[in-house]
UniProtKB/TrEMBL annotation:
This is Importin N-terminal domain-containing protein. It comes from the Eukaryota. The lineage of its organism: Eukaryota, Fungi, Dikarya, Ascomycota, Pezizomycotina. The keyword Disulfide bond does not apply. It is found in: Cytoplasm; Nucleus. GO terms for biological process: protein import into nucleus. The keyword rRNA processing does not apply. One of its GO terms (cellular component) is nucleus. It comes from Ramalina farinacea. Keywords: Cytoplasm, Nucleus, Protein transport, Repeat, Transport. HEAT repeats lie at residues 387-425, 935-970.
Length: 1111
């Protein structure tokens, strides 16, 4: 090989000319890199006096060639090269070259150790780290870091020596670089550390944590942003290690981070990194954070930092600031910690902020409030009586930025509590319209970002509020809304136009048929938007328009929308090929909406739609080949998964002459600092994630279509299962959820197509009627995939979704899914794990000892509780599917469920008592009788619970228990007490359905043991104070069954109250509200009206509804 020519070509890579760089790169790949001599020359160049950029690039390329050529050298040459390289690196002045050379040394050491060569490598590295020369210590500590990063297993036997060295170098007084390198090395050692196998090393690492904090503090004090960032990254790494590494000093570390985040004199980057660390603590050490009770302190810190937001409120401003980071931390905390550690202290502290004369404090206060709603909506709902006045006042604030923040607050509260906010529409909507009008009048052009932002925020808030209204409630606003939105459809700013389009779509979906007068003009105004494609903003608007049109289709129905279907189906098909992920996903979702609207009439489009969705699911995800370096040679040629995408690792050839195609591209960007590599990978992962997210939507849409157009979808069902089933094992949790949901929906769809004698299942095992062979096989496939994930998955949202799917399918399809004994056992065990908070998804990352700690905590975050809540729903599904035979399983579930029923949290008690009632109803007399003496005392206590929901559920449960149980002795002893406790429930306001459920309970008591109930008094109370039922229409069945039975028995008090009962009957039999009565109950009441008309037709005829019933 011509060395001089090689160096001449290599130098061209650094030329400021793209064509020259490309030409040089191609020549190097084809003519030189396949030859072993190229590595020798690169190592010589690395050790030369050439400029540092050229030497760094030489090191980078040499590192990639070491696995390919190192073994081709003789042992003598290898020994000479390694020693020259080590000595040269120890004397190197340029840090960037030292680091690049160190990685070459590590790459060589990895191969040599595999070949039983360079036995004293560790002694040499430790010797350099202990040297009296600062430069050598800098190289030595960095080499130990790269060694632990690459060949940690080979170094584990030297942990004691390593940590003793680190104890010394972490205090290096002459070199900050040594201290930072030491931290980096400790973090890599901690990653590989087995705390159970090596407790001595664990203790040494734990003892180094305060020293590491001191290094971070020194870097902060020196204003060294680069080294500060490295230190923060080390602590982020340690969060991913065995939790015992940090636990000893976790509280102090948390306090240090709070101190840094709170210090306004520090730079933005330093504070945001401290906040980022706290956020990761909330995600991966949330139980530890809860046990430390630091929620209130950090909440108040975030509230104060939020006042620094200034004028940077626009949703288009994506800059990371301390204030934005603090608001993000509040959001994370509200989801991770119970309300008493976040929401309660925030609300308690909010007054001085929202009442402050300083607009920044008012803005910060309302923004902070908005951020905690998503994480604790149930608790926020109980505080709306205090929150609404505050929001209304700030919406009228004198400062525009405060009003803008209040609009954001309205949107966030409405998104989570649509119905509750909707109740305030008469007061709220006029204010929102006023803001919209003011901003539209004040708009001075495209550069007027302030007014444009207010217009978008107003549209978004209106959209969120409207979603919580009934069609009749939104009807009065249609004209004024559509007049304004139509004007905004032509505004030049496309993002503002999109906000108006989305709001119009939501308005239409809520208004339903009331939107028909506005439908055609709106479609005409929007029709050109579905053809936009010349910019990213245009494609965004196209996506929003298609979504809005789909919502309008749902509102106006198939007939009115018919002429738009085919053009829009063509437009959405075109949208798949415009390289815009959001538009592609919107196209898929539009198809789902069309399937909902047209059902069987969607048949002409199914073939094309399914073909496109299958193509998405079958997209090859192993199309990115990367070289992860010699340290990962064991992965060569294999596929790994990163960010939900399978990536093929480039093969490392062992031949002396390497084919040029196997040599990685020479990239000038490799001259950048090593940290830039992470940014490049982040970009890759964003692409990877986008692919997985597209598949997630495609899988969901397949589920929608097969549900709503089942008969015409059947030819594609088998292929759907084949395409979706493997996705259950995908690394991306969102895609896993979508895949499982679609599989369960497929099962439910084909179940309904079976003959009635099978689909109308009967509870209990063994099955009284076997499902078809294909349905049975599908169930087995689904449960095998589900159990494999359900038992070990750590993602709470995924487990919660599995719980929901199990519950819904068992209630709809009965016991066939769990008919196999090998299935029922793990289902039961997993549900018990969740109820006892011992499931992997309920533990902190890397900590196997959390169950006791979690159980000792007083409260649970609403997000955590949702996992338990849905598990309880799955238990109800089991009870429904098994019927009386569930009695044996109830012995397993009873203890954890009843523990919640007696807990300190109101929503836990209410949920658990609700589960008890469902279990009673499902098991019936045969199953529930043995448990009567255990359940009744608890339910009696809950009848006087302070929480209305719990009290209401208890009334329902007591009624069912005395109706079904055959243990009359136990129940009748409590009859007087039951009646006493029900009486105030019948007389109070119908909060949480208390009056309705109490009425149902007492009517069940009359039907079961009429002689034990004072019927005249109860009937009088029902007719004069309770009926008609207003909330829980299910209880109309026992109430009217009871009254009809009493009429049949000619109960005198009831007969005398007939004139008062007739207007109640007229209201109950009226067309609205819908679903007041089941058909069977309605039939009984129609007969009752006929009976009463036979007694006094004139009296009955006073009521129009009753006259129509008789006609």
């Amino acid at each position: 090989m011509d060395k001089q020519k090689f160096l001449q070509v290599f130098s061209e890579v650094l030329a400021p000319d793209t064509d020259r760089v490309k030409s040089a790169t191609a020549t190097l790949k084809a003519d030189y890199y396949p030859l072993p001599e190229s590595l020798t020359v690169l190592l010589q160049l690395l050790l030369s006096d050439e400029p540092s950029p050229q030497r760094q690039l030489a090191a980078s390329q040499a590192r990639s060639l070491v696995p390919k050529h190192w073994r081709s050298y003789s042992s003598q040459v290898r020994a000479q090269l390694r020693q020259r390289l080590l000595q040269g690196t120890l004397q190197e002045d340029e840090q960037i070259v030292r680091h690049a050379a160190s990685r070459v040394i590590t790459a060589i050491a990895k191969i040599d150790l595999e070949d039983n060569e360079w036995p004293d490598v560790f002694d040499q590295l430790l010797g350099a780290a202990k040297s009296n020369e600062p430069r050598q210590r800098e190289v030595g500590t960095y080499l130990l870091f790269t060694g632990l990063e690459t060949i940690s297993e080979a170094m584990q036997h030297r942990n004691k020596e390593l940590l003793a060295t680190f104890k010394r170098t972490i205090h290096d007084s002459q070199s900050a670089e040594v201290r930072i390198n030491t931290m980096l090395a400790i973090s890599r050692l901690a990653i590989a550390l087995d705390s159970e196998e090596d407790p001595a090393s664990l203790k040494l690492v734990q003892d180094l944590v305060p020293d590491m904090v001191a290094v971070l503090e020194q870097a902060i004090g020196a204003g060294d942003e680069d080294r500060t960032t490295q230190c923060f990254e080390v602590f982020q790494t340690l969060l991913g290690c065995d939790s015992s590494v940090l636990n000893k000093h976790f509280a102090d570390l948390t306090q240090f981070m709070v101190k840094v985040a709170s210090e306004k004199s520090l730079g933005e980057d330093m504070r945001t990194q401290a906040i980022s660390f706290l956020m990761q603590c909330m995600r991966y050490r949330k139980m530890k954070m809860q046990s430390l009770k630091v929620g209130q302190q950090i909440t108040l810190m975030c509230l104060e930092i939020a006042t620094e937001l200034g004028d940077a409120m626009s949703e288009d401003d994506e800059d990371v600031t301390t204030a934005r980071s603090a608001l993000g931390l509040l959001d994370e905390m509200a989801s991770s910690l119970p309300p008493n550690q976040v929401v309660v202290p925030l609300l308690d502290a909010l007054g001085p902020y929202v009442n402050s004369p300083d607009p920044d404090r008012r803005q910060g206060g309302i923004m902070a409030l908005g951020m905690v709603v998503e994480g604790a909506p149930d608790f926020i709902a109980t505080q709306l009586h205090e929150i609404f006045p505050l929001i209304f006042r700030l919406l009228e604030d004198s400062e525009m930025k405060v009003r803008r923040a209040a609009l954001d607050g309205v949107m966030r509260v409405s998104e989570e509590l649509a119905e509750e906010v909707g109740k305030e529409h008469k007061k709220l909507i006029p204010i929102l319209v006023k803001h919209l009008d003011s901003a539209m009048r004040g708009l001075k052009g495209l550069d007027d970002k302030v007014h444009l932002d207010i217009i978008k925020a107003s549209c978004n808030s209106i959209e969120s509020v409207v979603d919580g209204l009934e069609a009749s409630e939104v009807k009065p606003y249609l004209s004024e809304f559509m007049t304004r939105f139509t004007k905004l459809f032509s505004i030049p700013d496309l993002k503002t136009r999109g906000a108006a389009v989305s709001a119009a779509g939501s308005l239409g979906s809520v208004a339903e048929e009331g939107f028909l007068p506005y439908f055609e003009p709106t479609m005409h105004a929007l029709q050109d938007f579905v053809e936009l494609k010349d910019s990213s903003d245009e494609l965004d608007l196209r996506s929003q328009t298609i979504d809005a049109m789909g919502s309008m289709a749902m509102a106006v129905g198939p007939k009115a929308f018919q002429k738009y279907v085919r053009p829009l189906m063509q437009a959405t098909d075109e949208g798949l090929h415009l390289d815009h992920p959001k538009l592609k996903e919107t196209s898929y979702l539009f198809w789902a909406m069309m399937a909902k609207v047209y059902k069987d009439d969607f048949k002409p489009f199914i073939e094309g739609v399914v073909k496109a969705l299958f193509e998405s699911l079958e997209t090859e995800e192993a199309d990115l080949e990367v070289d992860l370096g010699e340290e990962n040679a064991d992965l060569a040629g294999k596929e790994i998964t990163i960010g939900g995408k399978k990536i093929k690792v480039a093969a490392l050839a062992a031949d002396t002459i390497v084919d040029s195609d196997d040599i990685e591209d020479l990239d000038v960007d490799e001259l950048a600092d090593a940290s830039d590599d992470d940014d490049e990978w982040d970009d890759d992962l964003e692409v990877i994630s986008a692919v997985a997210q597209e598949k997630e939507i495609a899988a969901e849409v397949l589920g929608e279509i097969l549900t709503h157009a089942t008969k015409d979808y059947l030819p594609y069902m088998e292929k759907t299962i084949e395409a979706v089933l493997p996705l259950v094992e995908h690394e991306y949790e969102g895609l896993q959820k979508a895949a499982l949901s679609t599989l369960f929906r497929a099962y439910a769809a084909v179940w309904e197509l079976q003959p009635d004698e099978i689909s109308k299942w009967k509870p209990g095992l063994p099955l009284q009627q076997q499902p078809g062979a294909q349905v049975k096989k599908l169930g087995e496939l689904i449960m095998t995939a589900t159990l494999a994930m359900w038992e070990n998955e750590t993602d709470r949202a995924l487990i919660t979704d599995i719980n929901r799917n199990i519950a819904a399918t068992l209630k709809a399809s009965g016991p066939s899914l769990i008919a196999d004994p090998t299935t029922l056992k793990p289902v039961t065990e997993t549900l018990v794990q969740i109820l006892t908070k011992d499931h992997p998804c309920q533990k902190d990352f890397g900590d196997e000892s959390d169950a006791a700690e979690l159980l000792s905590l007083d409260e649970t975050s609403e997000y955590d509780w949702l996992t338990i809540d849905t598990a309880m729903d799955a238990i109800c599904g089991l009870a429904a599917a098994l019927g009386p035979s569930f009695s044996e399983l109830w012995k397993i579930f009873a203890k954890p469920v009843l523990k919640y029923a007696s807990g300190s949290s109101a929503f836990e008690r209410a949920t658990a008592v609700g589960v008890v009632s469902e279990v009673i109803r499902s098991m019936g007399g045969e199953g529930i009788t043995p448990h009567t003496s255990t359940l009744l005392p608890l339910l009696m206590k809950r009848l006087t619970d302070e929480d209305p929901e719990t009290k209401s559920n208890a009334a329902y449960a007591v009624g069912l228990l005395q109706q079904h149980s055959q243990d009359d002795a136990t129940i009748l002893k409590q009859f007087p007490s039951i009646l006493t406790k029900l009486e105030p429930l019948l007389q109070t306001a119908n909060k949480a359905r208390m009056k309705d459920n109490a009425a149902g309970c007492v009517c069940r008591m009359i039907m079961r043991h009429p002689a034990k109930v004072p019927v005249p008094q109860v009937v009088t109370a029902l007719i004069e104070e309770v009926l008609p039922l207003r909330e829980d229409f299910d209880e109309n069945e026992p109430v009217w069954d009871c009254l009809v039975g009493l009429y049949q028995q000619e109960e005198p008090t009831l007969i005398s109250l007939t004139p008062q009962l007739l207007p109640i009957l007229a209201e109950v039999l009226a067309p609205e509200p819908k679903d007041q009565l089941k058909e069977e109950t309605r039939g009984k009441l129609v007969q009752l009206v006929g009976f009463l008309a036979g007694k006094d037709r004139k009296e009955v005829g006073k009521y129009e509804v009753l006259r129509e019933v008789l006609s």
